Each structure stands twice: as structure tokens, then as C-alpha cells.
Amino acid sequence: ATTNDGLCTTLMHHSCRTLRSAVPPPGVVTCIGEPGFASEATLFNRNLQDERAPLAIVKPSSLSQLQAVLETARASKLRVSVRNGGHNPSGRALSKGGVTIDLGRHRAIRIVRNDASGPVAEVGAGAVWGDVYEALGGSGLYAVGGGCPMVGVAGLVMNGGIAFTSRKRGLVGDSVLSFTLVFPNGTVAETEGGRSALRSALSAGGGSTLGVVWALRLRLWPAPEGGHGVGVVRLGWKGRVPMSMLPLAAAAMDANVAATDDDEGWSLNLVVGREYVVWHHFHEG
Predict the structure, then answer these.
(1) Which residue has the higher pLDDT, 212 or 10?
(2) Cα separations (Å) of 161 from 151, 169, 177, 179, 186?
(3) What pLDDT is stored for residue 51 in this prediction?
(4) Can you say whether the dihedral through the CA atoms of 68, 69, 74, 75 is positive or negative?
(5) Residue by residue, what is the 3-state secondary structure of 171-189?
(6) I need a surface site. Which of 20, 52, 132, 274 has the fewest CB within 10 A?
């Protein structure tokens, strides 16, 4: 047993050195047992964290670094998982004994108004919905997206996704115009135009079984004047939600119950997160 333990330790150190060679700074590689690993190897479902601890968590800072990570993991026969927001209840964001690719360094969002498809948001796969709503603030545009600000954009998109405006605009995945996908061998594919089989698979539950999404383009919609709004406020508290937020949450719940009688939209929804309060006001006739 001692010999096997020593062999496993040697292989672990070798794998970590190989990953660090593939992902130099500003990319980050944190291996199990190193300072900071415990705070990095986290899940929304904390009950599964310990049993799904990976060998290493890698944060690539560029597309080329992501390619290098996948090529290295493939050559070393290491299982790979992808973490965006980490909200999957089954804990799939962590790969037990393998490599978890954390895309949190790629959260850039760019709003393009004159795209041939109409207004578009170009979104890095590490972004969460709070990032999208902040970028859209005051733009007069909205995205068909999630209500929880800390849920990852890519994760929700690749599982279809139900939004507040789905009755009008369909599932969240239906608003995706294209993906930038990196296959396990490091090659890159762009799913531009049309309803290709690859794009359909990515936005209908295929997810990271096919590769790693690095970026995506979301169709945006103009907000009817006086009838729609999305707001994001950072309150900046730490720890538990302040008691003063409870009346607001209760008021939002009452407004939602009243809005169910309105076939044309939701009146109000307030989502309280660790860092954000997100409000939605929808009415599209």
C-alpha cells in the first residue's frame, strides 16, 4: 500500500508540473493539498465537495491555454470537468481525481448593436447572468436569461434554460446564435449560422460531453418602452442576507403571485444573491 501511495503521489506531482507547463501565468493551476485549493474546490451543492475533489483546478486565461489544458489532460489520461457557475446539483463541475477547468477568468461581455442578426451579446463562457445584466444596464435591450445572478451563462444555455420571458421568446438556448467550442484534442469549432446538429446538441443538454465552450453569442431583444426592465444592484454584504431584505423578497413574491393572472408577462421578480439583487419587470403584449 505504501508503494502504491508513493506511486500515486509521484504521478500527481508529475501531472501538476505538466499542467503548469501548459498554463503559465497569468493562467493559474492549483493542485490538491496546495494553499488555496480547499477554497477553490467548491460547489453550489457543498455536500458533494469532498467526495468530488479533483487533482487540480486550472484557470486558463486564453483560448490557447484552454487548448493546451485539454491536450495535456488527454495525453495524461486525466478526466476533465468544466466549471462555469458551479450550480449543477449533481456536482459535475468537479472531476474526482481529474482536472477541473474553471472558466471564471473569461467573463468579458461585449454588446454589438449592428450585427447582421440584430443586437448581440458576445459572452465569455466564464460569465454569470449578473455580468450580462450589468452589461445591459441602460442599453434598452434584454437577454432571455436566468433569474439567479450567480448562475453561469454557459451552463444554463447548454441545458435549455427557462427564463422569465420564455413564454414570449422560448428557452434560453434558443437565443444562442453561435458557440466557440474546443474539442478534447484542442481543435476549435465555430457553430455559426443555421440550426446545425452541433449547435443543437450544445444547447439541448449535450454540454461538456462534446468539448468546452469558450464563448457564445446571444441574441438580444429591444425592450418595449415602459414595459420591460432588468436591473442589477450590488449591495456588497458578507455572510447571510440582511433581515432588511426580507420585506423586499416578500413583496416580490406577492407581486409574482399576482402576475400569474397576466398572460402577457411577469410584473416583478426579485432575486437575492450573495452579491446581487436582480429585479425584472416584464410586460410584452
Answers:
(1) 212
(2) 11, 12, 15, 16, 28
(3) 87
(4) positive
(5) CHHHHEEEEEEECCCCCEE
(6) 274
